[in-house]
Design a protein that fits this description.
509 residues; Arc Repressor Mutant, subunit A; Aspartate Aminotransferase, domain 2; 36% helix; 16 helices; three-stranded antiparallel sheet; alpha/beta
Length: 509
């Protein structure tokens, strides 16, 4: 009868005690293969011979024999008082020991197996990844909060406090929809800041806006369903919808938001409309009250869902935060999604969905199928952070900080490029749009700046149609005034490409 022993967490050995091969040779062969294949890395310290003998149910002399054999071969090194260590990281060709079974036909290089290919949906998912120059906050990368100003001490203190509560029912009975106190905190935040009247059981905690969008798409849309998105628009939104098989229609956005009249003339009636009404991404305009009313009226008459994604609505410097479209939603056809990665830390992967009342339970059940629930400790800490007013205080501090950096960034653009952003861009946001001439290749400009250790995203990548405005997204939120001023001169190399004669929302480009 075969017996499986485990070398700690390093290697498993199956011993055939009824076979013709001696036990020590079986163990030596497995060790040899593990070392030469690299599964046991150079310098790995092995357990004691007594521990291994006990683990495998063999005599210690057998293990000593194995160690002596492999040491003689140069694979192990026994050091008095220290233990036995792996001494090589060489690899061997494992195919040499392959024995072809009678009648078996080995594959040839020209053959391909269907089961080694991605599915059509998988290929679609992979091709939607746009790639990026870097994920490290390097001036002037947009959409990144200031990680140095995050209240880490307060956060760690709360983490230490809530860790003591991780016992009993909390560890076992974690609801699929999320930690209840956090859901209640989000409801309070939305009621106060966005005038949204919702209940805690409508809030589904996710691991960020991408998962939120994916969840909504899977539950409410069929493959091929038409979806309107803003043009230009967030790449992640377009990618998630396309990866799930939706038919995406880019509806031009102007200074008042998505242009419904152009959408109606050009595209079929949508099953869902995806919008960022508080601040359009990436151009930065607010959706007008008239357009908001049109959207709600259209949704009511057509049955289209509205997905409201106000990704950074908290960072308004003039005029305050507008109520959400959801606050005017009489038909309960508006679904809100939100994220904390823009307000706290980029690596903080918590977000939420505010689902329709009659579908909230279905959203919670579907959430359980995806990955059960988000990490409970982070949910508990964030709940305390919000309930104690620390989140609201943090947002106030960041608004003041980002506003000062926005002014500094505008000074840099004026000083080194002779460009002044339009007044509307000063109302909110974490980046400026720098318009370039239509003859410019903004993607190449982005790469050229990257060579100078300066990050700027090309505006054209946010368009899905052929009518692409050229420009750069220049973020300022994550960088103090000293860094902004220090990197400013690096922008002088593109001064001849700047086109300050047109508004970013101009129609005739």
């Amino acid at each position: 009868m075969a017996r499986i022993g485990s070398l700690g967490a390093l290697v498993s050995i199956e011993l055939d005690r009824n076979g013709d091969t001696p036990i020590h040779e079986q163990i030596s062969a497995v060790f040899r293969q593990a070392v030469t294949s690299g599964r046991l890395q150079r310098g790995t310290r092995l357990p004691s011979t007594r521990a291994l003998a006990r683990d495998w149910g063999v005599s210690r002399n057998t293990v000593l024999h194995v160690f002596e054999t492999l040491t003689a071969e140069g694979l192990l090194d026994s050091r008095v008082g220290a233990g036995t260590f792996v001494t090589t990281d060489e690899t061997e060709d494992l195919s040499e020991g392959y024995v072809q079974e009678p009648g078996e036909r080995l594959p040839v290089a020209s053959e391909s197996y269907p089961f080694r290919r991605l599915s059509a949906r998988g290929r679609n998912l992979v091709t939607q990844n746009p790639g990026a120059l870097t994920e490290t906050p390097t001036p002037f990368m947009p959409d990144v909060p200031d990680i140095t100003s995050f209240p880490m001490r307060s956060w760690l203190r709360l983490m230490n406090e809530v860790t003591g509560r991780l016992k009993g029912n909390i560890l076992v009975n974690v609801t699929n929809a999320g930690y209840e106190p956090l859901r209640e905190a989000i409801v309070h935040h939305l009621r106060v800041t966005r005038k949204v009247d919702c209940q805690a059981d409508q809030v589904i905690i996710t691991t960020g806006s991408q998962q939120s969008l994916d969840l909504v798409t899977r539950l409410l849309l069929e493959r091929g369903d038409p979806v309107w998105i803003e043009e230009p628009g967030y790449i992640g939104t377009r990618a998630t919808l396309a990866a799930n098989g939706c038919t995406v229609y880019p509806v031009e956005a102007d200074q008042n938001g998505m242009n419904f009249e152009k959408g109606r003339k050009s595209f079929p009636a949508p099953r869902m409309i995806v919008t960022s009404p508080a601040r359009h991404y990436p151009l930065g305009g607010r959706m007008s009250s008239e357009r908001r009313g049109q959207m709600l009226s259209f949704s009511s008459s057509s049955g289209a869902w509205i997905l409201e994604d106000d990704y950074d609505c908290e960072f308004f410097y003039k005029g305050g935060i507008r109520p959400a479209i959801k606050s005017q939603d009489a038909d309960d056809r508006v679904i809100m999604i939100g994220t904390f990665s823009k307000t706290l830390l980029p690596s903080f992967r918590l977000g939420y969905v505010v689902a329709p009342k009659d579908l909230a339970l279905d959203f919670a059940r579907a959430r359980a199928v995806i990955d059960r629930h988000a990490p409970i400790l982070e949910q508990m800490v964030l709940a305390e952070f919000m309930h104690r007013g620390l989140y609201a205080a943090h947002l106030r501090r960041m608004r003041e900080l980002y506003h000062a950096r926005q002014i500094c960034m505008a000074h840099v653009l004026d000083r080194f490029l002779g460009y002044t952003p339009p007044a509307a861009e000063f109302e909110s946001g974490m980046h400026f749009i720098l318009p370039l001439q239509m003859s410019a290749n903004d993607r190449q400009v982005s790469l050229d700046l990257w060579e100078q250790k300066t990050t700027a995203r090309a505006l054209s990548i946010y368009y899905s149609s052929n009518r692409r405005r050229k420009g750069l997204l220049l973020g300022f939120a994550a960088y103090d005034e000293e860094k902004i001023l220090a990197h400013g001169p690096k922008l002088k190399s593109i001064s001849d490409l700047v086109d300050g004669s047109t508004h970013p929302f101009a129609d005739n480009f």
